[in-house]
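Incident review: delayed structure delivery

Summary: a single-chain prediction request sat in the queue longer than the usual turnaround. Root cause was a stuck worker, restarted by the on-call engineer. No data loss occurred. The affected request and its eventual output are reproduced below so the record is complete for anyone auditing the incident later.

Affected input:
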Amino acid sequence: MKICVDVRSPGQRGILSYTSSLLSTLLTVDRKNEYVIITDPKHGSWGYDGVDEVVVPSNNPLHWVAWSNTVLPELLKRRGVDVYHSFKHVTAYRLRAKKVLTSHGGGMPYLFPEFFKWYNLMYWKSSYAMAFRIYDRVIAVSHDEKRFFCEDLGYPDSKLRVTNLAASSRFRRINDIARLQQVKRAYNLPDHFILCVGAIHPQKNLEGAINAYYRAIDQLNPKPKLVIVGERPAYVKGPYQRMIMELIEQLGLGPNIILPGHIGHDLPCVYNLADLLLFPTRFEGFPLVPIEAMACGLPVVSSNIGAVQEVTGDAAILVNPDNPDEIAVAVVQVLSSEKVRHSLIQKGLERSEVFSWDRCARETIEVYEELVYA
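Output delivered after worker restart:
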């Protein structure tokens, strides 16, 4: 069987993490099948030995649509591709190969249309509607996402499969004190801090985290700072980003909040240095951040939304993301009780081991085989 994986994506964060982790694991565990990679000039060659790579001659997503429905069908036919799997790009329709799409938070345009500009909203809704008609299988990254597609949007259960994501192996407990201290100095991190991880975007509910922190800080000793890992303040643009900066100023929290920006490869060390992950997100297809934190031995307070409940189980304290008082109570509970903190750490370490890229890759291969051999 020959499989084409289309890793084109305008994204650089969560989608790229999923793509690189799944692709590298597929190429490691699957010795029976051949792979072709479709990539773009922005991400360039993935550098896998013996793997056929095709670089699309553009970084423009609009050009991708035309290329995918003119050049790509003939390219896959010449290479004898049996299955085409897109990790993000959803507008390749005129293909003879079996077609698979992985949905990453595909429910968000329907549940939170206010998070999108009108043209992005129109694109995503129309693209997913077309994909569900034309693609042979859609992979959801959580059962909650599958439930939404089937029960709320009425798409057939027979087309959907679930493959959970996992934390990369680099997310683990780190005992290298010198390395941890190096990262601490590099980002000017304090001895005690609460960590938020996520772009400055309404989905991540950073205002809920900041308001909860404001309510909790006077009840904590020592008083931790709040570290928000996401876009740097210099990049702040748009009404939501300005609102976050204004909120910090209005609450007088400027000296207490650190915004180091996107920290990339140092994130596992930052998880290890933190006292608590605060993740009051409003929506996730698969909440990867809590799993990464748990794998690093960090206790978690997060939202009680469906996908987070599914993934964290009882290994996190889950709260109403729209209730800062409830969030604050949970933060104080964890940071004031060594017993609660230790229990969450142990449960989190165990829970994180449930999810693995090896399992995700093997379940993905089962989807390919089901289409070709069933």
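Verification: The CA atoms of residues 1 and 31 lie 11 Å apart.
Action items: add queue-age alerting; document worker restart procedure.
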